[in-house]
Amino acid sequence: MTVKRLVALDMPASLEFASHVREAWNSGDAVFPIDQRLPQAAKHLLIQHFAPSAVIDATGIVTTLSNSEPIDEHDALVIATSGSTGSPKGVVHTHQSIRSLLDMSQTRLDTNTSTHWLLCLPVSHVAGFSILARSILFGNPITIFPTFETSNVIAAVKHGATHTSLVPTALQRIDPSIFHTILLGGAAAPAELPPNVTTTYGMTETFGGIAYNGRPLDGVNIRIDNDRIELRSPSLFRTYRGTNSQHSASDWYATGDNGQYQDGMLRVFGRLDDLIITGGENVWPSVVEKIVSTLPGIEQIVVRGVDDPEWGQRVVAWIVASRNIVPTLEEVRLHVKEQLPSFCAPSEVRIVEQIPMTSLGKVDAQALRKLS
To answer: What would you measure as the largest C-alpha separation in the chain, in angstroms?
Structure first.
């Protein structure tokens, strides 16, 4: 029996990247896309951690590795989880879990194999890789750029692209109306969105968004256990690489998110580890962010908890403000207290030039807390 391999692709998104994925899948192998933003030392650690059989770089050179670990017969993809503070997890998806998500998404969006997608997100994350997979599995026309550039996005639309997936920071840099549909994920969405923007909720373990605009895709089940979101989905991952923790579509998966699910609508408050507990009171950052963002002059805002010897944690707001209007701490606090209990009002405001983000548009919490 031929041993199935994991092939690491150390290259940016491109037609060549797509060709290597297609070749690996045709051979029964799985792929592991490496984040191109990582320094070489970090790439090396990931390769050691996930133990692929070979690495293909941007020049096409193939390096065969010893001490590799095989994959299971139906495995197709290993994606490193983003935003983790410890050792990264390698989320293993099968051909079935990938196709299930794409089928559910296509049904909800009412797209077909002729829909032209623009890929401008990292393929080392499921939001980007899923667009590539549509082209490989369904034959969708695709325009590929390794990174987001406004001029490239406009050019792609002129050449026929009608659908894309973006993160909020990228959405702010374009006129959304140039697309038929934009899938928006990766971070909290702005309060006001045009009708052609569909917010998504999902994670690496579900191969991306399993709820669009708060409504689960057909085939996805959601329940709330003690305010915590759990779900079942045919797109659920099989396991984490290097562990024996098996999962299946029939398993209930604990997402680590807090939320409510009523009348078929999911409302997500945030990650449980983002919850701020100040003086024994619970504060959800996303709720405070949405209120503060309505103040004049607020371009971006992130709310997080900072350790405090008296209160346990204090509520801090990092704000990117316009040049003409810079909100004061008192203005922010009064605005929040008009709609929320006083303990939700930030006790500190830090005006910064930009919010540090990961490659998928999520807040880089460690870098954020270093900004004063």
So the answer is: 69
CATH match for 275-369 among 1.20.58.1480, 3.30.70.100, 3.30.1360.30, 3.30.300.30: 3.30.300.30
Cβ(94)–Cβ(102) below 8 Å: no
Rounded distance between C-alpha atoms, residue 333 and residue 350, angstroms: 13
The residue written with tokens 């989320």 in the block is 91
pLDDT 10s digits, 144-199: 999 999 999 999 999 999 999 998 878 989 999 999 999 998 766 777 899 999 99
Residue 163, helix vs strand vs coil: strand
Q: Which among 251, 278, 275, 259 has a CA at the least distance from the CA of 214?
A: 259
- Enumerate long-range contacts of 303-310, CB under 8 Å, 24 or more apart: 303/276, 303/346, 304/274, 304/276, 304/363, 304/365, 304/368, 304/369, 305/274, 305/275, 305/276, 305/277, 305/278, 306/348, 306/369, 308/278
Length of the chain: 372
Which has the closest alpha carbon to 125: 81, 163, 75?
A: 81
List, as one string, the DSSP characters of 305-333: EEEETTTEEEEEEEEEE-SS----HHHHH
**248 contacts 132 by C-beta, under 8 angstroms:** no
Q: Reduced to 3 states, what is the DSSP secondary structure of residue 93?
A: strand
Whether the full predicted model's pTM is greater than 0.85, yes or no, is no
**Nearest partner of 300 among 310, 308, 289, judged by Cα:** 289
User: Under CATH, which number does the domain 6-269 receive?
Assistant: 3.40.50.12780
Residue with tokens 């701490």: 329
Is 275-369 in the same CATH topology as 6-269? no
The residue type at 298: I
